[in-house]
Specification:
Layout: H1 7-19, H2 26-38, H3 42-54, H4 61-79
Helix pairs in contact: 1-2, 2-3, 2-4, 3-4
Length: about 80
């Protein structure tokens, strides 16, 4: 189990999971974006969500990814 109070640990664990998939796997990119988003790293999440969508992220994650991208863009703009 991953301690969600330790951001670096969360990133390390998710990175290990993502590394098991192909570099251009849209699902892996989406999950990698999501953990960045969750940790308040919206700027990093934006490019990852875009990459996942560009590489053909399928439904239902596609709709979720578009909503999360929009939310991350809004939050990132507010923090600029």
């Amino acid at each position: 189990m991953v301690d969600d109070t330790a951001p670096d640990t969360m990133l390390d664990h998710m990175q290990a999971l993502v590394a098991e998939r192909a570099d251009d796997d849209p699902g892996a990119l989406y999950e990698w974006a999501s953990v960045h988003d969750y940790l308040g790293k919206e700027h990093e999440a934006v490019s990852l969500y875009r990459a996942a969508l560009d590489r053909g992220l399928s439904e239902p994650r596609r709709a979720q990814g578009m909503m999360q991208l929009a939310n991350s863009l809004r939050n990132a703009e507010g923090r600029s």
